[in-house]
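Example (one chain per record):
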Amino acid sequence: MLQTIKYKSPFLTGVLTLAAALYAGGFIVQAISAHHYDSIGLFIASSVCLILAPPIYASCLYLVLGRAMYYVPYLAPLHPGRVITTFVGLDVICGVILGQGVSKVSSPKGSEQKVGKYLLDIGMCLQCFLIFFFIGLTAIFHNRCRRGSLDMRFHSIWTALYICASMNLARTVYRTVEFFQGLVLAISPRSNIAYVF
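Predicted structure:
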């Protein structure tokens, strides 16, 4: 975020601030809900905040890769304008699936909770796929720039994209494992709630 302020990129600064605020808010509400584990409102608030933050961070990555591709469009594996629209469109679809999953998991009906859990599993797997696809697209573009002797101009961009995408992937894999392990609402006995350690 400091780089976006330094290089005067107000849009990215705002988006990164929003994502950081969602993460912070989600963890604060999650800490509060640890003492009030029977509150569905706190569960929904923390889940929504923690599920929406990574796609917002990822949208910044898509924007940076798209801008890099505009500098050398003849080496881009995908049209630079389509990078942002394709990935953000798929992220929106993923967000809708995850939002529906959270709303159904918070339902008091057992059948609705099962549907919600399946939707959360599908949404998290889709997020993992998108990140892998993004890393693959970045690697193809990186390889083409390296062969075209343009690698040094984009060295800091490659480093930032790979590190940020890897961190986002680690978080998404962690949450996916947590959801597949059996996320059960606090409506059922507390001993049934799954956490990854």
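Caption: Helices lie at 2-6, 10-33, 40-71, 80-105, 110-147, 155-182.
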